[in-house]
Amino acid sequence: MNTQDKLCALRRKMDEAGVNAVIIPNADPHQSEYLAEHWQVLKWLTGFSGSAGTAVVTPKTAGLWTDFRYWIQAAAQLEHFTLFRQGDTDVPSFDKWLASTLSANDRIALDGKMVSAAQAGSLKKKFAQKGIVVDTTMDLISDLWPDRPPMPRTPAFALDTVYAGETRKEKFSRIRKKTAAYNADCHVMAALDDIAWTFNLRGQDIHTNPVNLAFAIIDMDQIRLFIDPAKLSPALGSSLEADGVALFDYDDFYETIQKPDKQSRVLLDPESVSDLIYQAIGRHSDIIEASNPSHMFKCLKNEVQISHIRDTAVKDGRAVVNFLHWLDTSNAPKTEMSAAEQLLNFRKEQDAFIHPSFDAIMAFKAHSAICHYSADPDTDLTLSPDAMFLTDSGGNYLTGTTDITRTVHLGAPSSQEIHDYTLVLKAHIAVATARFPATARGYQIDAMARRHLWQQGLDFGHGTGHGVGFFLCVHEGPARLSTQPVDITLKPGMLLTNEPGLYREGQYGIRLENMVLVIKDRDTQFGSFLKFENMTFCHFERSLMDKTMMSLAEINWINDYHQMVYDRLAPGLDTPVRQWLKEKTKSL
């Protein structure tokens, strides 16, 4: 079936069901960012392969909304769908567009398994104001997808306490205490990274995300884990049971939540449980809405994890420096895709490497202006010594997760390219050197990065930084550095990225990304202050820096950082690479 055939089939189903519109989010029953192939409904229907988007289909119109990161990609991939550039001036959100398109008494279908309770509740409330009904009991897509990939069945494995720094039973105890503090009897979990963290489990059910498809229910008397039993070895199953975990099949979860339990007050995170789960439990229990306790526990890395992250930063830095040396010195023909393969090979040489933390972005020329560009055989460019090249990649190691972006020029950069690179570097340094009160939120730090670009009428459409998991998801909440006023204070132990950028569509893009750890700075009469510790070691491109645009403090920071990069990485590099890095890290 092509896109047009799929739309025709969906519209027939809509007509049979008596609905006037369908909303298709890019989601799974766990509200994951990245999806197993079985749940990639949006990609199947629209052809759009980005990780963020929402489609809306009416009898006459089909539209897809996605944010700045994917505007260029979506425009190239979509057929028979109109692209709505979410966040652009005068572009309505999908719900506002639908509200202006539909009439009173019209009905919208939205699969309640595939939307969070929070979003479903918000949509129902908005549309009710116009007399429009949002029905979250219908799945109109599944029957239309005859060759749908099966549910993943990759093995689960335990993350040893030597890496996790805390046992399952210790985590269960903390979650129970927090649940009781909310005056709740029971806590239901659907977020895969929270479950992986809580149970010290990892897997590969989602490409590049080391998680298992599972649900969990933690109450004061028992702990239930709902997971495909085929994923658990006898030893792992016995270990879980020894820690007080009762094991049930993944598919038993939905039947379980339909039944009244002895617990009457259930702690749920409406952002991470589906509307189906929320409605089912709400029929027989009082719901207490709050973020998963594990959400904050997970983002505050313990001392064992931090020690491993520091070691991982060195290993990953050597892999990336080996790659950049190869990129600069090898005469072998190179393409975007072959470059990604080469970097993966360098990471595989590092101890404790498991798999990439996301599909590497290798973007040459105008492709580098596409924030989340993904090369394929149809778009794969041959590299040549005449343009900018952006590499954004990361690794999942037993000892931590990494995320790093560097931009280089494979030939002689123009004055504008040097100017733009230096601006982005100044933005990066502003965050790296920030000192801020312990009451600060991420959006305040984000503004520090943008200041240098704003002064010249420039900006970038993504956040300055996101949280990073520990051998988990490369994007982790709740803290982030972005323009959105997220009311989460930055705390010691949070691992974030620092990645300002600048993108000139059709020309080139620049992004410079390190990971940073929030640590204590000092206490003064004005309160407690925090700062960032760098957690990435790889040089920046000296040939793209304009010293006349940089302050003495910025030049000193670069020189100090480059000396640290060389000192940390050189002992593990082969002589040619070590000599090459010595040149790359010379003082400005």
From TrEMBL:
Entry superkingdom: Bacteria
Signal peptide range in chain numbering: none
GO molecular function: metal ion binding; metalloaminopeptidase activity
Domain Peptidase M24: 308-518
Keyword line: Aminopeptidase, Hydrolase, Metal-binding, Protease
Xref: Pfam families: Creatinase_N, Creatinase_N_2, Peptidase_M24, Peptidase_M24_C
Gene3D superfamilies: Creatinase/methionine aminopeptidase superfamily (3.90.230.10), Creatinase/prolidase N-terminal domain (3.40.350.10)
Domain Peptidase M24 C-terminal, residue spans: 529-588
UniProt xrefs under InterPro entries: Creatin/AminoP/Spt16_N, Creatinase/aminopeptidase-like, Creatinase_N, Pept_M24, Pept_M24B, Peptidase_M24_C, X-Pro_aminopeptidase_P
Domain called Creatinase N-terminal: residue spans: 9-135
Keyword Cytoplasm: no
Gene Ontology CC entries for this record: cytoplasm
PANTHER family reported for this sequence: XAA-PRO AMINOPEPTIDASE 1
Family: Belongs to the peptidase M24B family.
Official protein name in the record: Aminopeptidase P family protein
